[in-house]
Amino acid sequence: MPGSLYYGDNLSVLRESIRDESVDLIYLDPPFNSNANYNVLFKAPSGLQSRAQIEAFEDTWHWGSEAEGAFMDVLRNPRYGDVGTMLQAMRSFMRENDMMAYLVMMSARLIELHRVLKPTGSLYLHCDPTASHYLKVLLDSVFGPENFLNEIVWKRGHGHNSAKRYGSTHDVIFLYGKDKKSVWNGGFHAYDEGYLAKHYRHTDQTGRLYKRENPTGAGIRHGETGNSWRGIDVTAKGRHWVRPPAELEELDKRGLIYWPDKPGAWPYLKQYLDDMRGIPLQDVWTDIDVINMRAIERLGYPTQKPLPLLERIIRASSNEGDVILDPFCGCGTAVHASEKLGRRWIGIDVTHLAISLIERRLRDAFPGVTFDVHGTPKDFEGARDLALRDKYQFQWWAVSLVDAVPYGGKKKGADSGIDGWRYMAAGRNTVARAIISVKGGDHVSVQMLRDLRGVIEREKAEAGLFITLAEPTRPMVEEAAKAGYFDSPFGGKRHPRLQIMTIDSLLKGAKPDLPPLAIEAGFRRAEKEDRAETDQGNLLALPGLDAPVVAVVRKGGKRGVAAHV
User: Fold this and answer.
1) How many CB atoms within 10 Å of residue 41?
2) How many CB atoms lie within 10 A of CB 134?
3) Nearest in space to 417 (alpha carbons), one of 389, 442, 437
4) Distance from C-alpha of 454 to C-alpha of 292, rounded to nearest angstrom
5) Is the distance from CB of 304 to CB of 210 less than 8 angstroms?
6) Are 11 and 348 a contacting pair, CB within 8 Å?
7) Burial of 155 by CB count in 10 Å (0-12 exposed, 13-18 middle, 19+ buried)?
8) In a 3-state reduction of DSSP, which class is residue 57?
9) Residue 32: partners with Cβ closer than 8 Å, 6 or more residues away
10) Closest CA to 503 of 408, 407, 382
11) At how many degrees (to 10) do helices 65-76 and 98-116 cross?
């Protein structure tokens, strides 16, 4: 089963396309009801950055007929008794406001996520303190308080300082199991250098680092661990051996007991560093930083989470071949991590912008990867249906068909006659630009083409692409021909300055007659992944060992720690 991307409302996709108990692990990073508008920042040539920004989505919820309908749906369904009771109590306390609308939206989706999760499955819900306390109550009502496993605190690595309160530096990740049988592989992170310097101070003849451990524990035992060993009466000291004397004898034969030269001194156990798996993960994560502005993996999508964060979650709570679901997949970090770690995956997003970005991300990172895309138009009727339902989603989708980046947003007049930009190579350190104009109506006119020609001249662009759902008229074709040509530096080829392309022709594989894309512009490229070099968690894997460990290396007589963080 290849991975599957779904464009659409995740509630509808879950109900119509995802079977009961078919998913092993769910990660969701839903909007937080922050009343903010988020922009996607595309990579653009120097000096053109302002043209490469588009409003991706509005993180704003309001109480209205849709929220009221969703609320009543939960109350009317007898299967959702506990959830309905909780929502009623929350509404009586909070009344009909934006936060209540957000919680109703989330409750309907959490119910469906619980349905599709296998009995051995787990759910991680990523949020911030804006709504975490309300979401925890909802999760308890859906999964049952007894299936709450952890509240993970992730320190993002930078703060939002305030003159009147403590700086905010963390997100919350709630972990719930479907029931007590949920998969758990755990995880480890590297020892810090201070700990290593303090405890692993000893070296054997081969150069292996180890620390000395007391082989006894406090208190008397009357079984084997209370017996004398090598003439040492451990009971007389009010203690006991941590292992039976027979095991200690075997460890000594293997060179794992250290005997001090001092007569009468007690032995120590040798604990070699390269036998250790690291420190077991706790519920406070401080070793994975937020993606900074210059990070290689940064794709410009709002709220993008770092890949190591998702890799840790997926390794801990799933196995190779399991199905991972992200119902708010955004730029696809969970999808990327799942593909990298050999899991099957399902990603859902409500914007074509996100779907287009994820498609490019996966193909850049995993050349030759195959996956299915559902919900995007595959034929003319599908395109027409999308244009009728959502003008802006249709525009974003159409712009992606010609390898361009969208421009503008849903604000009236924001695009200035421009729906997208295509940046093209035009010689060394030179970029040519084509303006994209998309029309999804049933009728187009020659005036629309003249308007585009005027925008080309105003912006001093080299070319324009007019993408239309309807067939162009003869006067439009003649108007395009009047615009003439521009010269490409590649072999002196000439390209029509104004081109008309229909959605039908693009779906059948037609391409615009333009120079090749500029490498440094457009959707930011994801780094190619080498699956053969995929490590085990945040630590290096050493040959011959099943578990990840910390590798300690010596260079120039100095000790260092090699570990992924």
Assistant:
1) 17
2) 18
3) 437
4) 40
5) no
6) no
7) middle
8) strand
9) 59, 127, 128, 130, 131
10) 382
11) 40
Q: What is the DSSP letter of 20?
A: T
Edge-to-edge, what's the strand order for the sheet holding 371-374? Answer: 284-285, 148-160, 168-177, 117-127, 23-28, 323-326, 344-349, 3-7, 371-374
Strand partners, 6: 348, 374
What is the full per-residue pLDDT of the chain (565 aa) written as tens digits? 789 999 999 999 999 999 999 999 999 998 765 444 444 434 444 444 433 334 444 545 788 898 899 899 888 888 788 899 999 999 999 999 888 999 999 999 999 999 999 999 999 999 988 889 999 999 999 999 999 999 999 998 666 677 888 888 889 999 999 988 899 998 888 888 888 999 999 999 899 999 999 999 999 999 999 999 999 999 999 999 999 999 999 999 999 999 999 887 889 999 999 888 888 899 999 888 876 545 545 554 556 789 999 999 999 999 999 999 999 998 899 999 999 999 999 999 988 888 888 998 999 999 999 999 999 898 999 999 999 988 888 998 999 899 888 886 555 445 578 999 998 887 766 788 999 999 999 999 999 999 999 999 999 999 999 999 999 999 999 999 999 999 887 667 899 999 999 999 999 999 999 988 886 565 667 788 876 545 444 333 322 223 333 333 333 333 333 322 2
Amino acid identity for residue 46 in this structure:
S
| 127 vs 219: CA distance, rounded Å | 46
> How many angstroms separate the CA atoms of 435 and 485, rounded?
15
Q: How far apart are CA 395 and CA 398, in angstroms?
A: 5
Task: Tell me the whole-structure pTM to 2 decimals.
Answer: 0.78
> SS3 for 99?
helix
